[in-house]
Amino acid sequence: MRHTLTGNIQNHPAFPSKILGNKRDVLVYLPKGYRRSPKRHYPVLYLHDGQNVFDAATAFGGVEWGVDETAQRLTTAKLIEPTIIVAVANTGEDRLHEYAPTAARIDAGAKIKSKGRLRSYGRFLTEELKPFIDRKYRTRREAEFTGLGGSSLGGLATLVLGLWFPNYFTRLAVMSPSIWWDDCAVCKIVEAIDETARPSLKIWLDTGTHEDGWERARELRDRLVEKGWRLHDDLHYFEAEGSDHSEGAWAARVDSVLRFLFPPPPPGSVRPRRPRLVAARDALRSLLTRPRREPAIR
Fold first, then answer.
1. What is the per-residue pLDDT for 297?
2. Is the dihedral of CA 164, 165, 170, 174 positive or negative?
């Protein structure tokens, strides 16, 4: 299958982790105008299961999310803030261990038990990958400008990591999360939140109505509201009518997710920069219209 990458995408193959003891590919999408604006810094969105984010050639079942094409279109239309997007690949057999917040089995009959290494995966993101991205690219490093997203187990990981690492990630794309994991372990984690010290997170939460157990998302929404999140403000809940648990279903919601988490900045908050060609043209025009000094008559 041919590659379907769109825009300015940088490849960092076999990115190593001492914390996890493995390597993974990382792709970085740079927004339109990145090269023309050398003094501008950008918010960042980190996405799990990075194989599925940009490229049909590596995506599960050959179906990508099309985040690169969607970001290009929304940025051009000024419907989102230009954003750096980091696709963090899973490592296959370690995915179950790295994305699970607790040590448990998928079901009673499963032979493999997750090691529950999500906290270590979070350390990899915050101590190894994010510092590298911040050094390599012009990012806005603060937590308020940094997002995290994923689907299924990646959606579960996103919400829990946001609660565990609110000093690093505050904009969360929680898509079709595996709320069922370990008898709703995430519910217990949310329940333990102290309302007086609730982390300042902006959360997109969704589900498809053709997913098994999709009603659990409503219950999770209600638990978040009880803890102080406000619907249509810092919590957006969406039920995709007729949608199943698939890459294509999540791809269809990327547009709305990006618009909610990375809306365009208010007018005047980012000083526009003139492209180099325009600046060169103005300089040339200035030279051509400057009054000429007449030669002295001898």
1. 37
2. negative
